[in-house]
Structures are given as C-alpha cells and as structure tokens.
Design brief:
Blueprint: H1 11-18, H2 21-27, E1 31-35, E2 41-46, E3 49-56, E4 59-64, E5 71-72, H3 74-81, H4 90-102, H5 117-121, H6 128-147, H7 157-161, H8 166-169, E6 179-183, E7 186-195, E8 198-206, E9 209-212, E10 221-222, E11 235-239, H9 242-252, E12 260-264, H10 271-284, E13 288-291, H11 297-309, E14 316-319, E15 322-325, E16 332-338, E17 342-350, H12 354-373, E18 382-388, E19 392-400, H13 404-421, E20 433-435, H14 443-451, H15 456-501, H16 504-519, H17 544-570, E21 578-579, H18 582-591, E22 612-619, E23 625-626, H19 628-637, E24 644-645, E25 649-652, E26 658-666, H20 673-688, E27 697-700, H21 703-715, E28 755-765, H22 774-784, E29 788-789, E30 793-796, E31 801-811, H23 817-829, E32 833-836, H24 839-855
Parallel strand pairs: 11-12, 11-13, 13-20
Antiparallel strand pairs: 1-2, 2-3, 3-4, 4-5, 6-7, 7-8, 8-9, 10-12, 14-15, 16-17, 17-19, 18-19, 21-23, 22-26, 22-27, 24-26, 25-26, 28-31, 28-32, 29-31, 30-31
Length: about 850
C-alpha cells in the first residue's frame, strides 16, 4: 500500500497564488455577469447567489453578498461548496485543488496593473481597524444616501396602499422604525435594520419596488414594545417582513393585548440575524415567541430552523474573567434547506451509545413510515442515514417542496423529543415557541381580504384561488420559456438547414432524389413470392398539381357529406315525442331493457374488416312522452345509406323521462363512409351547440373507432344518393376546379396525422466495390413510395455478410400513405430484409391505407422515366 502523501506546509499558499478563483468558480457552474473595466473585480452568479471576486495582496478573495459569513480565498470556496454542498475537510480540499492544478493552467486573466510599491508601503497594510473603518464608512454613506439627515416618516402612501391604517402606524411600537427615503423626485418607505452596534442596513419598499442595501445582512428590523420602553415584554413575534409585522399587529393586537415586540428579517434569515433574535430574547426574557412566517414552503423552512435555534433567555456564566451565554445541550438538532424542487431536513442525534442512537433512529423511521403509509399517492418522505458512530447519527429527510408541511410536523415532534431528552433544568416550557400561520399566503394578504369583508372561510377559499392563479402563472411562464427555447432551436435548425442546402453537395443530392422519384421503380427491388407490388393498387403523382387535386377531392368528399346530411335531416319532420297516458307509460316501463343488456364483445375478436358500432342515445325532453327515438331511427333508416340500426332499448327514470338508445353499425370500407362520418359528427356538433331539435341527442363510440372512421372518410369517394334529388339545390361550384365550394361553417376538421419512425435492416452478401446492393435498392424503392429515408449505415462481418440499417419516416396523413404501407410490407416479406416498428404503428398504417385504397383508381399509373 502506498504511504499517505505528506502535506506540504506551503501548499495552501501556493493554491491561493496559482489558482484563478474566477476560473475555478466557473467550473463549478458560476457565470461572470459583471467585471471592472480594469479587471480588478468580477461579479459571479449561480442560482440567485451573487459573489464578488477581488484581489487581496498576492491572491484572490471572494465575498457572498447575501451571507457575510461566506467569504475568503479559494481554500474557503472549495471547503464550503465541495461535497455536493455538504462541505469538505482540509484534506479533501487539498486533493480537489491538486486535481484542478493537474488539469493544466487556467486561462490567462487580465488584471489591473499593480499599484506603485511606494504608495502601497504608505498604506496601513493588514490593519484590521483600517478595514473595519472603511466598511463602516461605506455603510454610513449608503444609509445616509437613503435616509438623509432628517429621518422621519413624511409619506404614508405606500403603507395606506397595503392596507396599513394610521392607528397602526402611530402605535408606540413603530415610532422611529419607519422612515421616508427620498432620492430626487422618488419617495420610498424605508425600514431600518439594527444590530448590536446600531443601524446596519435599510430596506426600501414601494409599489412594484423592493431594495435592500448591498451591505452584510447582519441586522434585523425590530419594533419597540407595544406598551413603551421599560415595560416587561411578554411576547416576541417574528415574521419575514415589516409589512407583515404591521399587518399582524393590526389584525390581532385587539384580540390579545400582550406587551409585544415585532421582529422582521427582510426575507430569508441569515445566521447573524438568528443570533440577533436570540440576543433580543436573552435581553427581554419573553414568555413566548410566535413564529408568524408565510404559509408556503419558505415560511415553513424558516419555522423549522427557528424551532432548532431559538431558546428561552440564556443565563450568563463566567468564562476566563468574562461572561458568556450558556448554551443548552442539544441531544437532537436539525437544519432545513431547500433547492429548486425539494426541501431537505438534516437531523443529528447525539447519544451515549450506538444502541441508543439506533433506538432513536428507529423511532423516527417508524414515524416516517407511518406518515408515508397515509399518503394516497404513495410515500412522499425519503429517509437516508448518512453516517453513524457511537456518539452521533446523522440522517437526511427529503420531500418535494409541495410536501414541506410534512417535514414541519416531524420537526415539532423532534422539538418535543429534544425537550424530553434534556436535563430537567434546561427543558423549555411547551408553549414557549409556537407557530401562527396566516389563512392566506401572508399576513398582509389576510389584512387585504379582511378589509374586503371576507370571513375566515372565504379568505381560505380565496387563498386557494390565489395559489391556483400563481401556479397557472408559473406554468404560463414555463410554457412561454419553453416556447421561446423551441423557437430559438427551430431557428437555429433552419439556419443550419439553409446553410447545408446551399452547399454543392446538397444541390447534387436534391437532383439525385428528383431522378429517383421520377423513375418510380416501386417493387423492382422488393418483389417476392408472397406479394408483388404491381398487383396492389397504388397511386403515384407526376406533379405537385396532381397531389393538390387529390387533396381537394378529400375536402370535397367531406363537405359533400355535410350537405347531404343537412338535406336529409331537413327533408323529414323534426323528430319529437308525443304525450302518453299512464297505461302506455307503464307498458314502456315494462319493456325497458337496455339498462340490463350485456356489454358488447371485445374489439380484439373482431374480423379484419370489422363492423363498427356507434350508439345513439336519445332522451325525451318532457316527462310522460315517447316516440322521439323512434322518429330519429326512422329518419336514419329511410336515408338508404349502408349503415344498419338495431332495435330501440329504453328505460324510464323517476321523473318520468324516457331515455332510449339504439346502435348504428357500419363499415369503414363502404363507399358512403364519408356521409356516415358526417352524420355522426354533425349530430354531436349540433347537440353541443344547443340546437333545439338535437336536445338530448348524442352519439357515443370509442375514440379509436372515431379516429379510424375520420381517416376512412377523408379518403373515400362520395357515392350518389339513391333517391330523386332533382329538386335539391346543388352546392356552389368553384370557378377554377368545378368542385363544390367548401362550407366553412359546417366543415369537419381534417384528420391530423402523426409522424412515424421505422428502422429497416438488410442482411446480404457484401456487393463488389462500386456495385449497388440490396440495401440501396430497398432505400430507392422506399423513397419512391413517398417516405423519407436516412443514410444507410453498414458494417461487414468476418464472413463477408453486410449488415445495413436505415431510418425511415412517414406521416399517416400524407396522400401516399397506402403506397408507403404497401412498400414497407413488401420489404418486410423479402428475404434478408426486416422492418422494425411498433405493432400499433403497423396496424394503424394498414388500417389507414385501406381507406385511401377505396378512393384510388384500381389501376397502376405508369410513370415514364
């Protein structure tokens, strides 16, 4: 075994000097968003996190603008962010940075020229007091620019707009805690944040505007006590924003008039802010702390961490001639984090033995299993034991963000478990920390809805609608983003396609494709004993005009079917019912049959050309009437089309309404399928449109039958009706084609096809160099049928057998679909060739091609070479 590598005491300094921190961060997914004109600083961003990288002495350092604890050299950067966010120890950092340097030098980065040595020597190098003073001066300057010299609240417009009343604003608790910030003609409402040293930062708010000064977030917004200075504080209420604190006070102070201090963190609390909240608790010694954060995943995450971090007022104990707060023991602790989609909870048990740890873990695991077992959609909480020793066990639980409340339930149970495990003197009173959620998303929304006169139940319903609206807007944004990405990709593909099409090789390929199409040698290379393509009807086209004319025929067939439907319905009396007496009504009840009829046989046993069934359901429009179904059936039976109708089945409900039905059976290979399709489609369409004659009428069928009939109808030719239509008004003819003018108001949507993918494989003896093989012949035949073919990919094995493969695509709505289908079947039957496709795709193209064959002349049209 190799001896462990000794650590070079100067290696860490070398890492700092030799590693470009910006390049190292970019490899971790950060992106440069801004940089100084002289290259003396860079702003990096990743997932909303903003880092500033500058140079200090002979190396680079970084600062996280959202967390003043997160700063330092490349050593600190790697230590904090390594291990997939779990952190690395120093040995792991060394190993990672060694690997980075072994990958080669980073790109040369231009930095500002070094300052004059004499000038540098004149500065107080490494003087902490100087750095602190510079930071203090910057903080003072930024705050002064916002608040000015005279700090007062002169504009209440924004607060009034958020529903905050003057009585609340003038409360003693908020005096000197809200100001007006004016810069030029703009006025914003300012909320100052304080720490132990005084004013730390300022948050500004206005309509559609929110800004927190770019200073370390180490202060909190804190009110005075509601009963004035020098009074005993009974309660502290912690929320995410000052506006929520004001809203909570306005909504609830009249109901519970305890002496209260309000604290807000201006968003996600930092470690420094949590420490400040605990210091306020230590000083004020309240009886309870209320966590009043938002009712969402973020607010629940904050509450989970507060439950772990906040304790009753801690006593001071002497330590090395000083005093320090005595921290309570932590037999159990936890910390919640979140990413874009999930919320995680890291739980750490401290125990005296491995057996005690296993017992505690089992207890938590059983509780998670119990919660997972109650979820309708299956388990939602994932539990993983990350590490365990005699003294410590670490677990991680994870849920989708929408299920964060389940983790919050567990943290409340961990909170109670921790208090039971603590020594008696350290146990908290059970009611010290409690959670108070708004009914809607946040307290200001509760205030807004309450001012509108809504009660709690109505607010809860509105909150649900708000959440649905936010989700709809989020989905809309995602859809818009997806659409823009697709458009960009499509544009890029079009540009690339245009570039390729303009090359000489592409032009030659197009000319070769045209020659192959014009030759039309379908079947020459794929003939077999089982099937000859010449014996099968197909249609080829000599020009685009012929293709367009054939397509127009489909449109004409569809429109003519609608015209005939309208005529035969209008030629008959309106199918209405008639009144019946009690005796006939009872007889109808006795004859009621269809509710108990047996289900239709499964389609799987149907013959190759099967009869389809569409069930007509016709309800009487008034009680104690009958005959409406019989009238409809008579209209259909007298039309003399190829479908057949069954006897009528009926039943009568408690209100005396007769509900009847009968079956219409038809076949897709009949010449009048276009008219049958129009009858069914138009009947449903008119019923859904609310036309009086069609009230209570519907035609039901399977979606597969409807789709197959629509394809067959689009390909079928219209056959003449067998009754005298000499007095019928002929459809208007177009001047150019002599075809009936399409009636847009009654048109049935054209069938929408899908693109299908097929792989053809050909195994053959390798042809001589330059000779055309079977694979090339198959490709040419398939391309001639109207399908698109990709390049032939071939390999030759040691036995001289050539294995070829090509991708083929076609659309189910293209006019040549019958020809494509015949060609693919012919290829599949040829020795050495195979067609790989999904069985449902094969069945679909064969079914569709049958409908197209009906409309084609029963002959082959020879194309001259």
């Amino acid at each position: 075994m190799n001896a462990p590598r000794e650590n070079d005491p100067n290696e860490l300094d070398r890492f700092k000097r030799d590693i470009d921190l910006v390049d190292y961060a970019e490899r971790q997914g950060y992106q440069i968003k801004k940089e100084g004109k002289r290259g003396d600083w860079h702003q990096l961003e990743k997932d909303g996190e903003v880092l500033i990288v500058t140079r200090k002495d002979d190396h680079q350092v970084y600062l996280n603008t959202g967390d003043d604890r997160d700063r330092g050299s490349v050593i600190d950067f790697a230590k904090t962010r390594g291990g997939d966010g779990h952190g690395l120890n120093l040995g792991q950092v060394r190993q990672q940075l060694r690997e980075y340097l072994n990958d080669g030098p980073a790109p040369t980065r231009a930095y500002a020229p070094a300052a004059d040595v004499a000038r540098l020597n004149a500065l107080p190098v490494g003087n902490p007091d100087h750095e602190r003073q510079a930071e203090e001066d910057r903080r003072t300057r930024l705050i002064s620019e916002v608040l000015g010299v005279k700090r007062e609240l002169t504009d209440r417009t924004y607060l009034h707009g958020r529903g905050i009343e003057d009585q609340t604003i003038d409360s003693p608790a908020f005096q000197g805690r809200i100001f007006t910030a004016q810069q030029n003609e703009h006025k914003n409402t300012a909320f100052p944040l304080y720490n132990a040293e005084g004013l730390a930062s300022v948050e500004q708010k206005n309509e559609h505007y929110k800004n927190l000064l770019p200073l370390p977030k180490n202060g909190i917004w804190v009110s005075h006590s509601t009963e004035g200075k020098g009074t005993q504080v009974e309660r502290i209420i912690v929320s995410e924003s000052a506006i929520d604190s004001l809203s909570h006070h306005q909504l609830k102070s009249g109901q519970d008039q305890k002496n209260t201090i309000y604290i807000a963190t201006s968003g996600t609390p930092t470690e420094a802010q949590v420490a400040l909240i605990q210091r306020v608790i230590d000083k004020q010694e309240p009886r309870e702390v209320v966590l009043a954060n938002d009712r969402d995943a973020g607010g629940r995450q904050f509450n989970m961490n507060y439950l772990n971090e906040l304790h009753p007022a801690r006593p001071l104990v002497p330590v090395a001639e000083q005093e320090a707060y005595k921290e309570p023991t932590r037999p159990v602790e936890w910390h919640a984090t979140s990413d874009k989609y999930h919320t995680g909870l890291k739980v750490t048990y401290h125990h005296d033995s491995a057996e005690a740890g296993a017992q505690q873990v089992q207890q938590l695991s059983d509780r998670v299993g119990q919660m997972n077992g109650t979820q309708e959609a299956g388990p939602t909480i994932a539990l993983e034991v990350q590490r365990s020793s005699d003294r410590e066990t670490v677990l991680r639980l994870s849920v989708a963000k929408a299920d964060t409340a389940q983790l919050e339930v567990l943290t409340h149970e961990l909170y109670r478990q921790r208090e039971q495990l603590r020594p008696e003197p350290e146990r908290q009173q059970e009611t010290f920390l409690r959670v108070d959620y708004p009914v809607a998303k946040d307290w200001n929304r509760d205030l807004e809805l309450t001012r509108q006169g809504l009660n709690a139940e109505q607010i809860r319903a509105q909150a649900l609608r708000d959440e649905q609206q936010r989700e709809a807007e989020r989905q809309q944004r995602l859809a818009e983003q997806h659409r823009q990405e697709q458009e960009q990709r499509q544009l890029a593909r079009q540009q690339e396609q245009q570039r390729r099409e303009n090359t000489p090789a592409a032009q030659e390929q197009r000319e070769a494709d045209d020659r192959r199409f014009n030759q039309a040698v379908l079947g020459a290379a794929v003939a077999s004993a089982d099937a000859t393509p010449e014996s099968r009807p197909f249609r080829s086209y000599q020009s685009e005009q012929e293709v367009a004319a054939h397509t127009a025929q489909f449109v004409h067939a569809r429109d003519a079917g609608l015209v005939l439907l309208k005529e035969y319905i209008n030629d008959n009396p309106a199918p209405t019912g008639r009144k019946v007496d009690e005796a006939e009504q009872q007889e109808n009840r006795d004859r009621a049959r269809y509710a108990e009829r047996n289900p239709a046989p499964a389609l799987a046993t149907a013959p190759a050309v099967e009869e389809k069934t569409a069930t007509w359901k016709i309800d009487e429009v008034a009680p104690n009437t009958t005959g409406r179904a019989e009238a409809w059936k008579e209209v259909l039976d007298n039309s003399s089309y190829s479908y057949k109708t069954s006897e009528i089945r009926s039943t009568i409900d408690e209100q005396g309404i007769r509900r009847a039905e009968f079956d219409m059976t038809y076949r897709n290979d009949q010449p009048d399928i276009a008219i049958i399709h129009a009858i069914i489609t138009n009947t449903n369409a008119r019923a859904e449109a609310g036309q009086e004659v069609y009230t209570g009428v519907s035609v039901s069928e399977s979606e597969a039958d409807r789709a197959a009939r629509q394809v067959a109808a689009g390909a079928a030719a219209i056959q003449p009706h067998n009754r005298d239509r000499s007095k019928d008004q002929a459809p208007a003819m177009t001047a150019t084609e002599g075809q009936p003018e399409p009636r847009a108001a009654e048109a049935v949507p054209a069938p929408q096809g899908d693109e299908k993918q097929v792989i053809i494989k050909v195994d053959e003896v390798a042809p001589a160099p330059g000779a055309r093989g079977q694979a090339e012949a198959v490709k040419e035949a398939v391309a001639s049928s109207g399908a698109k073919t990709g390049d032939i990919q071939s390999t030759t094995d040691a036995k001289g057998i050539r294995h070829s493969e090509m991708k083929v695509s076609y659309r189910t709505d293209q006019p040549e679909i019958a020809r494509v289908s015949q060609t693919l079947d012919a290829v599949a039957s040829q020795q050495g060739s195979s067609v790989i496709e999904h069985s449902s795709d094969r069945a679909e193209r064969r079914e569709i091609s049958k409908g197209y064959e009906i409309a084609q002349p029963q002959r082959s049209q020879e194309i001259t070479r």
